[in-house]
Write a structure and sequence with these properties.
By secondary structure, this protein is mostly beta strands. The chain has one domain (5-116): SET domain (Beta-clip-like, Beta Complex). It has one helix and nine strands; from the N terminus they run βββαββββββ. A hairpin with a 4-residue loop joins strand 7 and strand 8 (92-97).
Length: 134
Amino acid sequence: MELPFYVSISKTLPNTRALIAARDIKEGEILEEAPVVILKKEHLPLLEDTIIANYYFDWEDDQGALCLGYGSIFNHSYTPNVFFDYKYDERILIFKAIRDIKEGEELYINYGQGCEDEEDPIGPRHLNFDREML
């Protein structure tokens, strides 16, 4: 399977990796279905002083999930062009375009997606989001 994006240096965040659209991407297109490794609730405090604390996703039952695909490379924007959803039973994160994206455009997710306060990029990355977008 050919990925619709590639890894490069961000055009907006110097010295930061980014995912860049390798071609035009249509709204609704699935960009990746990424497997995750579940991080047990009791292990999460051990990660707080590590670089991994910046890369894991919140998961059900107050657990974490380390994305094994490219999902952990998406940068943050309050106006994202990619949405993610959880398939808890399959231990997968699905990343989907929420609008048409042009070739060469950087791909972004909202780190606070689904939080009561989506303006807080540090908050949990799931909860009560609108599944109609999927």
